[in-house]
């Protein structure tokens, strides 16, 4: 008998939900393994604390990309959560599902109707706790059709507003983008304030939502933190089928083997393909180059990397406060701190981006294909000082990039970080969307609603107008918005690059699957969703949990 029925690798977004769902059955023994520490670091829970978590070895894997031609040879920091809650402990807290068409497209790619929007919507709602369902609120007639209440995943409205953001929203409307109060009903076109995963002014991560207090008191649940999995234990059985029967994990400076009936790999779109490759599952030539046995030649492991690249246009303004000004003095910082201390509101309660908009980069686009994250501040990069002048940033990203990157091990040594090459702006379509999206930004900034604030384009600079110039400058100022997906993607039986079945089972490269092994995280997405990716990852984990529990009852 195995010590555990299920071992879950990674206590992040998907792993935390799966741990709660699967340990609900008291006879089912679950071990949750997390390479990072517990989420008892204060800055995790104060919303603005992402500034102190990103780039911090206490909470971040500290990855960086390879030099990218589309970014004019630049490398980017590539934050990934390394703590309980994973990226939900360091991300922007924005609650976003994407568009209905995203999931209908998945269903077509996978040949599986279970992934259509009307099929995945109940999984979003199953764990949702939307503020409009609270006593005393007034949800509209459509609320119950699209939103849940009483689940673990808290969704609230933000606890601040800014004059300059209100003006940007009005300007967006004048530019033809309709106002919306809800981005999460299948068509997210519009402009409005984001809803966030917070509770009473505190970050609400998946460790709070799913692990405590429920899991901690269960006798059939065990959790190891500060424990990094070195590889999966995969062997070929007498009948020729591959089976994963556990993991090799470093605990207290010792490598130990843990046996399990099944392993759920939830380490994220970077670490999951890395672990598969280290375990002999991946592109055969890559594994052989690093002296690893090829148990399953799967060329798709580590390919198909997709990410949202944000182009951070900065506008200097007049006649309105921004965070650049409010946080420029000790007195200003003290006022901000006191407001949060006594009210849990103000700049310390804010997500990295407060106002959002979804629209088309050009009129011929059939659906909204760009997203704005608008901020009442400006800086050169996260972690850098705020600029000395009042300004706002209108970051715009291509929701459906056609560029594809890779994640590949650089050594058979599991301590070594993988090589991450997103290949941003490597297709003509992506370069055109980049240029067009900057023009949309300029059109919004030129509307009457913003005229009282005299917006002046500081980056990339209004003197640049040609496609070539805008693409080059986009490469200078663009950065990741932290949404890597697709590196272990699901696919149909006839898809040679598919890593997973539509039920998250790992393929064996010979027409079958590897018994006892599934990957459930953002890497499983066939194509990136049209918006922030945290909540879609939770939805996938909810679906996986349901299928696993059904199978266990048979």
From TrEMBL:
Name the Gene Ontology molecular function terms of this record.
flavin adenine dinucleotide binding; oxidoreductase activity, acting on CH-OH group of donors
Which Gene3D superfamilies does this one have? FAD/NAD(P)-binding domain, Glucose Oxidase, domain 3
Report the cofactors: FAD
Domain spans labelled Glucose-methanol-choline oxidoreductase N-terminal: 268-282
Tell me the residue numbers annotated for binding FAD. Answer: 229
Q: Which UniProt keyword terms apply here?
A: FAD, Flavoprotein
Q: Give the family, as the similarity comment puts it.
A: Belongs to the GMC oxidoreductase family.
Q: What is this protein called?
A: Choline dehydrogenase
Write down the species.
Comamonas serinivorans
Q: What is the lineage of its organism?
A: Bacteria, Pseudomonadati, Pseudomonadota, Betaproteobacteria, Burkholderiales
């Amino acid at each position: 008998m195995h010590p555990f029925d299920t071992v879950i690798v990674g206590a992040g977004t998907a792993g935390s939900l799966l741990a709660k769902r699967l340990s609900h059955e008291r006879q089912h023994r679950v071990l949750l393994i997390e390479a990072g520490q517990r989420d008892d670091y204060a800055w995790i829970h104060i919303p603005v604390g992402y500034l102190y978590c990103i780039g911090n070895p206490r909470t971040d894997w500290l990855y960086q990309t390879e030099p990218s031609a589309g970014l004019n040879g630049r490398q980017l920091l590539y934050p990934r959560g390394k703590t309980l809650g994973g990226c939900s402990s360091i991300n922007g807290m924005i609650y976003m599902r994407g568009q209905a068409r995203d999931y209908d497209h998945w269903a077509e790619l996978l040949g599986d109707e279970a992934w259509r929007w009307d099929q995945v919507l109940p999984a979003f709602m199953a764990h949702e706790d939307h503020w409009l369902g609270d006593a005393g609120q007034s949800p509209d007639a459509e609320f119950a059709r699209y939103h849940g209440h009483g689940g673990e995943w808290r969704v609230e409205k933000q606890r601040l507003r800014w004059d300059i953001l209100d003006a940007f929203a009005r300007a967006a409307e004048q530019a033809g983008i309709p106002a919306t109060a809800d981005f999460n009903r299948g068509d997210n076109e519009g402009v409005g304030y984001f809803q966030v995963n917070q509770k009473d002014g505190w970050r609400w991560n998946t460790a709070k939502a799913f692990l405590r207090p429920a899991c901690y008191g269960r006798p059939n649940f065990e959790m190891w933190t500060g424990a990094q999995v070195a590889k999966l234990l995969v062997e070929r059985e007498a009948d020729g089928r591959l089976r994963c029967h556990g993991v090799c994990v470093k605990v207290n400076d010792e490598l130990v083997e843990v046996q399990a009936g099944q392993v759920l790999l939830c380490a994220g779109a970077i670490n999951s393909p890395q672990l598969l490759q280290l375990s002999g599952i991946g592109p055969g030539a890559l594994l052989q180059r690093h002296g690893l046995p090829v148990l399953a030649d799967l060329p798709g492991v580590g390919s198909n990397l997709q990410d949202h690249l944000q182009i951070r246009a900065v506008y200097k303004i007049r006649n309105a406060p921004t965070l650049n000004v409010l946080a420029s003095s000790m007195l200003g910082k003290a006022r901000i701190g006191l407001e949060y201390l006594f009210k849990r509101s103000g700049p310390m309660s804010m997500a990295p981006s407060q106002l959002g908009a979804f629209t088309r980069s050009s009129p011929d686009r059939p659906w909204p294909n760009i997203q704005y994250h608008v901020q009442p501040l400006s800086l050169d990069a996260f972690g850098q000082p705020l600029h000395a002048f009042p300004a706002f940033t209108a970051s715009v990203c291509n929701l459906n990039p056609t560029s594809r990157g890779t994640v590949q091990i650089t050594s058979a040594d599991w301590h070594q970080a993988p090589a991450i090459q997103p290949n941003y702006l490597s297709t003509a379509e992506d370069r055109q969307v980049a240029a067009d999206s900057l023009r949309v930004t300029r059109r919004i900034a030129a509307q009457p609603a913003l005229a009282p604030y005299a917006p002046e384009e500081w980056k990339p600079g209004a003197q640049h107008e040609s496609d070539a110039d805008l693409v080059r400058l986009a490469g200078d100022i663009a950065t990741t918005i932290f949404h890597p997906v697709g590196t272990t993607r699901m696919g149909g039986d006839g898809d040679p690059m598919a890593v997973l079945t539509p039920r998250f089972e790992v393929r064996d490269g010979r027409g079958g699957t590897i018994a006892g092994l599934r990957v459930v995280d953002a890497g499983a997405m066939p194509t990136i969703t049209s918006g922030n990716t945290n909540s879609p990852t939770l939805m996938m984990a909810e679906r996986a949990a349901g299928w696993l529990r059904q199978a266990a009852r048979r």
